[in-house]
Design brief:
The complex is a heterodimer of chains A (325) and B (326). Chain A is an alpha/beta fold and 325 residues long. Chain A has a domain of 202 residues: Rossmann fold (3-Layer(aba) Sandwich). Chain A is built from twelve helices and twelve strands. In chain A, the strands form two sheets. An eight-stranded mixed β-sheet of chain A has the order 6-7-8-3-9-10-12-11, with helices on both faces. A four-stranded antiparallel β-sheet of chain A has the order 2-1-4-5, with helices on one face. The two termini of chain A are 22 Å apart. Chain B folds into two domains: 212 residues, 3-Layer(aba) Sandwich (Rossmann fold), CATH 3.40.50; 76 residues, no CATH class. An eight-stranded mixed β-sheet of chain B has the order 6-7-8-3-9-10-12-11, sandwiched between helices. Chain B has a four-stranded antiparallel β-sheet with strand order 2-1-4-5, with helices on one face. The two termini of chain B are 28 Å apart. The model of chain B has no long low-confidence stretch (mean pLDDT 87). The chains are: A alpha/beta (325), B alpha/beta (326).
Amino acid sequence: MKKKLITIDKLQKYFFTRQGVVKAVDDVSFSIEEGETMGLVGESGSGKSTIAYTIVGMDGYGQTGGDITFKNESLNTESKNRPLALKKDIQIVFQDPGTSLNSARSIRQTLELPLTVHKLAKTKQEKAERVAELLEMVQLPADYMHKYPSMLGGGEKQMVAITRALATDPSLVILDEPTSALDVSVQAKIINMLIDFQKKLKLTYLFITHDLSLMRNVASHVAIMYLGKICEIAPTVEFFENPRHPYTQLLLSSIPVLTEEEEALRPTKIISEGEIPSPVNVPPGCSFHLRCHHKMDICMQLDPNMVKIGENHTVRCHLFPKEEA
Amino acid sequence: MSEILLEIKDLKVSFDVFGGVLEVLDGVHLKINKGEKIGLVGEMGCGKTTTVKSILKLLHTPPARTERGEIIFKNRDLLSLSHREFQKVRKNEISMIFEDPTAALNPVFTIGTQVRDAVKYANDAGRKLSKKELQQGAVAALESVSMPDAERVLQFYPNQLSGGMRQRVCISMALLSATDLLIADEPDTSLDVTIKDQILRLLNDLVEQKNTSIILVSHALGAVRGMTDRIYVMYAGSIIETAKTSELFKKAYHPYTEGLLLSTPRLTGGGISKGIPGRIPEYMNPPTGCRFHPRCEKCMPICSEQKPPEYQVGDDHYVACFLYKD
């Protein structure tokens, strides 16, 4: 039995706005085992990134309720209150490398910062050596350390951002849509590199994306989110062979594919209807009922609970009654 | 044999910028028949948008400069039309949908004002439309794209609508003046998967209904596969492979197309290929010969010397690569 690296229990993150309370993340629970990749999939506004930011403890992202446990330690405060060693252990890579790298700093300055903060290298020379080593790891030439982000291509910038995250030798890396701003040929290269690092450095990933086909090739477990809640969690193979939640089926039938084998794998065509409701004004009952093809009366009144329907496979839908649990 | 609606012949477009000339389009050939749905696919910065924008003369000149080539539309060369004549083309014959509906709509005018303007502009009744007719036209336009509650939506400002709804508004306006050809420049890129599916299906239904030809520009091969009859693959300013959609997905010949297909993650799993090394070349000093040769694993000496012509490799399947010389 593998050890659980991070456990999230009934996590809530609400934002209080003038228009009302936005329940960006509402009662989300999952855990990631060491060396695994948890894929978090959902459409825009479903709360994927909010979960990521809460875990790294970004300013203003302290949770409203629930617990995060990381290596048996509680992570219930914002980053500024966390011990330095804990910050070093959790790193994040953002979606757009164009804005997540400081354009006024050279690559060397960018990569030296985490080394300085976490006291991983002392002398100037040590730092320069480590930076060169890091660049070599992502197959960038060492003289790139004197360049500025504007001189690099999108893929290279993202490599630098990944290197920066890996500079502190973390155990959990959160990848918040790391390749969605990139072309597929570049994406392929980066994904392969990430998979390599995971094996070599024994990393655990929380991989956020909206691309299910990518998820199929990267993640070991998949969680689907819709309007701040998780609809379905399952191991990847099981998830793609046997999707149960109507929203998962809709997602799978909506993605464009390239081959007939893939088409055979998708559920029969489900016509996508309706809009994603605004998170300020979530419909009562199950938040998906407005777009669901299996809507029942109960769906409009009662929000379903997570039901276990198989080994590690849970679904939040009234179609699956409690008895199966 | 179906009738050719639009033909781009050897189009070369450059941009004069500080520090030199960007040779972006390097002899683009493209043909679209009446009622045909074609896809133009390629990665970021390969000249897809420049190509379609030059059809409608939407590129700012300067810096853009058409060095040579012709765009024949219904037996007229669009590039040599006067401004006046060209307005007629834009008014009734060709129209375009842009990638980002948020940027395409003016945030300070209501949807109503903007759609009514489009109705007024596309009007070919030979007389001015009354206010009532404009309003009716606008409602009908929105209803044609299955917009719920069209009359109320007309009073909204763009920021009150979701991305998918905004794109519907843009499509409705474009369709008003696109009787012959609709150019859709990545209409789905900024939308979510399920909404993307909705919008592409809507576009497909509408163009089939009206027998309008469509050029669907996209960087995602999957999106294009579901909807088009024919695909043009573009790399660094030229068309490198073209075939019927079903043919292309059966077998791609150009090393770049192959790489692109292999790089796309599959639902069936099995890992991801290692991608294509390198990146799109600089247009200031593009590589000589075939522009793909510095990234190509099957590069031969001739590739850096000459630009490859198109070779036929199958039924209606053409590839610009020296590998298929014989």
